[in-house]
Each structure stands twice: as C-alpha cells, then as structure tokens.
Amino acid sequence: MPLPDYAAGFYERWFEKLGDPREGLVEAVIADIWHQVQVRPAAGDFKLETLPAHLFMNFRVIDEHGRMLAAGRNLAQLKADLGRQAQANFQQLAARDNEVAQALAHEKLTSWSFGPLPEIMEIKRGGQSVIGYPALVDKGAHCDLDVYDDPDEARRHHRAGLLKLFRLGLREQVKFLEKNLADLTRLSMLYMPLGTQEELRDQIMDCALGQACLSEPWPADAQQFEARRNEGKGRLGLLAQEAARLAGNILTEYGALQRKLPQAKPHAAAYADLQQQLGALMPKWFIRDMPHAQLAHYPRYLKAAVARIDKLRADPGRDAKLMEDMAPLLTQYQRARSALKGAPDPALDEFRWLLEELRVALFAQELRTPMPVSVKRLIKAWEALRR
User: Fold this and answer.
1) Mind listing the pLDDT tens digit for each residue in 138-176?
2) Do strands 121-125 and 128-138 pair parallel, antiparallel, or not at all (unpaired)?
3) pTM of structure
4) Residues 305 and 274: beta-carbon distance below 8 Å
5) Which candidate among 31, 65, 185, 222 keeps its CA 20 to 30 Å from the CA of 277?
6) Which pairs from 100-107 meet CB under 8 Å and 24+ separation?
C-alpha cells in the first residue's frame, strides 16, 4: 500500500527484467511481492474471475497480407482452429531459410553432438521475420532436430527428445535399474488392464530421468547437457525407486477401485460417470503424460471414488443430487476440451484438476482438499477461463 505506488514500481521493475519474461502476470506479481516484502501469495489468492473482460488480452490472427483470419480472447481455441495449418506453412517457410535449415541439419542424434540450441530462431521471408522454436524430437532409437511455430508444442517435443538423449547417455545405469526396480512384477500385474510390464517400466524410468535431469532451466549446449547428465547419474537410482513406489501406491488404489466398481452398476448414471473419471485419470501412459505434481494426488482421487461407491449404495439420492450440481461444469469442460482438437491449453488443464478436487469435496469430504473447492468457486473460475 498504496496500490498505485506498488503498481508503478512493479511496472518499472518488470521492464528491468528482474523476473522471467516468459512467466504470466500473476506469477510475476507473486515473485515481485516476495522480492519486495518477503511474502509469497498463492496463485489462488488472485481472483481473476472478478476482472472485467476488457482487461484480458484480445488476439487477432492475420495472414501474410494483413487480412484478419480470426480473433478472440481464448488463445488456445485460436490455436486449435488454425494451428495445424499454421505449423505446416511455418515448416515450409523454415525449410526455405538456408541459415535455419543448416542449423537443423542434424539427424539420428544419440548424444549432444551439435552446437548450442537457441531458445528461438529468426526465420526470414522477404522483408518480414517470424520466430521459430527449435526442439529435439524423439524418433525412437535416436533424435532429430526440428522447429515449431508454437512454443508449447516445441517444449513438449523437446522434453521428450531430451529424455531420450539422457536415456541414451545413461544407458548402462538405466539397464541396471530396469532389471532391479522394486516390486515390478507385482506392479505389472496391477497395470495389466492398461498395458505391458515393459510399458510400465519405461514410464517409471522416464519419470525418474525427468526428476533427475530436467530441472529448469534445461540444458542448451553440450557442456550443460554433460553436467546435467553427471549430476543426474548420482540421483537416478533413488528417484527410480521413488517413482516405482508412487506408481505402486497409485496402482494399488486403482486395483481397489476396479474391484469396487461393479457395485455401482445398478446406478447407471453414477457408474458411467465413475468410468469416465477413471478413464481420464488412468490412460496407458498416465505416469509419463500426467504432471508429476498431480500424480502425488492420484491415490486420494482414487480413494475418493471408492468412498463414493460405498456412500452411493447407502444413499443414491444424495449422489444423484451432487452429480446434478457438478454436471454443467463437466459438460462445459468436456465440450471445451473437444473443441481444442488435441491442442494444449494450460488454463483448461488447471481447471481439469479443480474438477478432480471438486469430486473429492463432494463425494469424500473426509479426504480433504489442498484448497477450498466448491461448485460456486468453480463456476466463477470457469467464467474467468472462458472470457
């Protein structure tokens, strides 16, 4: 206080680049408050749903002639509608830029045998320039280099490519750990409805490699890569066993829910909802693809589903009423996710985990949630999300 003075000061400090220029405004304000007064607010303390729509960014997509193709405040939806066409055109453009094509002319990589990898590449076309985001791309037994127009898409591919290079660079240790993961045979039996023992093992190892070698910032040249490989080598064994234990806890609760689920069959709507929830939580590659921070909550989500079935049998009317309260939020989320056609949307991902917490709050309050959650809170969060 006073707020105008703080806002002016934040503006000046922001342009002095005290923080990461890639982070969002809320994250930047949190970091700045910590620097100024050693208080760290939570992201949930900022009620974005109270802001008027005009304070959110409005995006316009234009073609090379300046004609507007689309506009809106939902960037993820614009990417979903136009992203594939844009990426195809972009990669054709990159291939015609000799400097960029030469920088990416590395194939079948099994180690960091190329030069530094910049965060961005400038691609020229006539008198105009566009920005590309280079990435390692996992090709199975090796990696290639490619460039993307979308930083989120580039980051997703690059993470998988870095994991592949670290796996190849630590192949002997990885092989040893794969043969000695604790309780892998028992875990693979629990995992059997989803996939094979080899698929489970590979996910556990990728989870451990990510924890051991991919802390921020990611390596950008051969020297940094080698330093990170050596640093991760000493921790990989412990992290692999921890990942296996977490997988074991999740799969144990998954097995308990699978055994309990038939008891919900007489209640068709609840049974269908539980199946949908379980399918979204537990795809084949859940350890690899779900955020590691969320995996720690999985046992609680699955226990909540078991508790719901027990309560459903005793009071089906209560369950039906709670489902009725939650149904509009689920429908809106599923429609929005479907409209994205597979394109990423971090804000929608965050809302998805709020829905899981809402299920706990509604159907198994005794298991508690890490933050206050209610239908009303999620309605406000959804209104803010869709502006």
Assistant:
1) 999 999 988 888 888 889 999 999 999 999 999 999 999
2) antiparallel
3) 0.76
4) yes
5) 185
6) 100/132, 100/147, 103/134, 103/145, 104/134, 104/145, 104/146, 104/147, 105/145, 106/144, 106/145, 107/142, 107/144, 107/145
